[in-house]
Design a protein that fits this description.
Blueprint lengths: L7 H14 L1 H4 L24 E6 L14 H7 L7 E3 L6 E3 L2 E6 L5 E6 L13 H19 L1 H6 L3 E8 L2 E6 L6 H4 L10 H4 L3 H4 L10 E7 L3 E6 L20 E6 L3 H9 L5 E2 L7 H6 L3 E6 L3 E7 L9 H10 L2 H9 L27 H10 L3 E2 L5 E3 L2 E2 L1 E6 L6 H13 L4 E6 L2 H10 L4 E6 L6 H6 L13 H12 L3 H17 L4 E2 L4 E6 L3 E2 L2 E2 L5 E2 L4 E2 L2
């Protein structure tokens, strides 16, 4: 496939046609944004200038986009780097950004990108085909999949990049990799200058980085704050952006405010302009001060438990199967999260391309009890079941990277106790959560992953992916996950991803709870703060009214 556009306006007009003309992107059209709230309330003509003060609910884990994972990290890092492509949040189509056009081989093993002229990093050096090669090589070489898990997963089977000429780069894979094109739209495959790519993983986390993006790091203090300044002369925005030229905002000041009530109070009092994770109880205070809640639901893997299938009672597939109907997902939404969130209904979130609702993801405590009764788990005097003297008990490790996690799990704890399962909660830091996931030191781990492509199932549950289940081969699932990478037929790929969702549930590899939504509190002066296709914030079009 190949497409080329000369102006930003022309690229935007042509974006809708991409769905019909590009086979590999046609399967992405399920990713709509009807649930996204507009942040501009007829405030008039956008005006440049001003500093937007943003309250993050948690600290960014690293300044390096390639090593980013959490939403709070990506909110910062996304503004500093551009990607080869962008993904339209309205249609799911892939559109030009740093690449003006591209071709994909029929077997999806090679991709050729034709790059824009005149793009530079903030240190003044040019962005070229060699920049693409060095960045991709460093993800698998310097950073390694251990440090850049998501970025490395998009480069699965990467053989190397060939610089055809300064504006043309050819990427080869050892095997078909149909998901790679969507991967080129992600922040993890954004680009840093040569001097930054040569740094170690730890050095890249420090914030002294040069990207091609519309903002630059002015300061970065781990666990405290980050300040971004407008990139003077920026002139190569995505086809998805609403305007050409530089960003409107002069600066974005990010501070970490973990307490939800403090965030909403700071917004209502005018100390902050926007905040992450605005919970239902925050809405009256925010709206009473003239603000509003902006929402978008995340595609990808919804929140849920990923059991270590080699450890404790969760090694028993019967126990895992009983947990699914024991969870009242609607109660989690109604009690903890509010109407901007939805219960999980599959092993993919509903805004993900090729999502399918699974009838087994339902609340049926009687069915859960019968499964456990039939398997010989007998209720004890304290209500906790046991079998052969072994209590039906397991733990879950989680972090507060999302503000609602603890309250959700406390309610799940009560729900599981009602059917005789004892759930122990282990709240840990994000760093410890990551470390324990790396060593698989947990009974189960609780998290979500955002990506607007069904290949997230392979990276989360495949043997060659993170495999936080610590599982061995499951031939049917392994073949389905591999096959969806091989096909360039959108319908065939969609059917394979649908099958993978069911097989992951059938094998008890994911115990879903709720879908993540971004709920951003914004003051009345904040206009056009938008969500990109993966429900992360895009500040390029944002501006401040009087």
């Amino acid at each position: 496939m190949s497409f080329s556009f000369t102006s930003s306006a022309a690229r935007r007009r042509a974006a809708l046609a991409v769905v019909a003309s590009a086979a590999l992107t046609a399967g992405l059209t399920a990713c709509g944004s009807a649930d996204t709230t507009d942040s501009s309330a007829g405030a008039g003509t956008p005006q440049a200038g001003g500093t937007l003060r943003y309250g993050l609910s948690g600290a960014p884990t690293c300044a390096d986009p390639a090593q980013s994972g959490s939403n709070q990290t990506i909110y910062v890092a996304r503004q500093v780097v551009d990607s080869l492509t962008d993904q339209d949040p309205e249609t799911g189509a892939l559109t030009p950004w740093l690449a003006e056009s591209w071709e994909v081989s029929g077997d999806a093993t090679s991709f050729t990108f034709h790059l824009r002229d005149g793009v530079t990093f903030s240190d003044g050096t040019p962005f070229t085909a060699d920049s693409v090669k060095k960045n991709f090589d460093a993800i698998l070489g310097t950073l390694t999949p251990a440090k850049a898990a998501l970025a490395a997963s998009y480069l699965a089977g990467y053989k190397g990049a060939t610089v055809v000429d300064p504006q043309t780069v050819h990427i080869d894979f050892a095997a078909p990799n149909s998901q790679f094109l969507q991967g080129t739209s992600t922040v993890q495959l954004g680009f840093l200058s040569d001097k930054d790519v040569a740094k170690s993983a730890e050095q890249r986390c420090g914030g002294d980085l040069s990207g091609t993006g519309p903002f630059v790091y002015e300061s970065y203090v781990q666990d405290k704050s980050a300040t971004l300044a407008k990139r003077t002369g920026y002139a190569w925005g995505s086809a998805v952006f609403a305007h050409d030229g530089e960003a409107y905002l002069d600066k974005i000041e990010f501070t970490i405010v973990p307490e939800s009530g403090v965030r909403s109070g700071s917004l209502a009092s005018g100390q902050l302009d926007a905040v992450s994770d605005a919970l239902p109880q925050d809405a009256p205070q925010i709206e009473g001060a003239g603000g509003r809640i902006l929402t978008a639901s995340n595609p990808g893997v919804p929140f849920g438990f990923q059991p270590n299938v080699t450890r404790g009672v969760l090694a028993d597939p019967v126990v895992r199967s009983a947990i699914v109907p024991a969870i009242n997902r609607q109660e989690l939404v109604d009690t903890v999260l509010g109407p901007d969130f939805t219960p999980a209904t599959s092993t993919l979130a509903s805004r993900t391309p090729d999502y399918v609702a699974l009838s087994d993801v339902t609340f049926d405590p009687d069915a859960a009890k019968k499964i456990l009764d039939d398997a010989g788990w007998v209720p004890g005097p304290d209500g906790v079941r046991a079998k052969g003297g072994r209590p039906l008990s397991f733990s879950v490790t989680f972090s507060s990277v999302f503000a609602g996690n603890q309250a959700i799990l406390e309610l799940v704890q009560q729900q599981l106790r009602a059917v005789g399962i004892d759930l122990k909660l282990e709240l840990v830091s994000t760093a410890e959560q990551t470390a324990r996931q790396g060593t698989k030191d947990y009974d189960s781990t609780y998290y979500n992953v955002t990506r607007a492509d069904g290949d997230i199932l392979r990276t989360s549950f495949g043997l060659e992916g993170r495999n936080l289940n610590a599982r061995g081969p499951i031939p049917e699932l392994d073949e389905v996950l591999a096959a969806q990478l091989r096909t360039t037929d959108p319908q065939e790929r969609g059917e394979l991803i649908e099958r993978a969702q069911q097989l992951i549930l059938d094998n008890g590899l994911w115990l879903p709870t709720v879908e993540l939504s971004q709920a951003i509190g914004a003051a009345g002066t904040v206009q056009d703060l938008k969500f990109e296709a993966s429900a992360r914030l895009q500040f390029f079009d944002a501006w401040l009214s009087e």
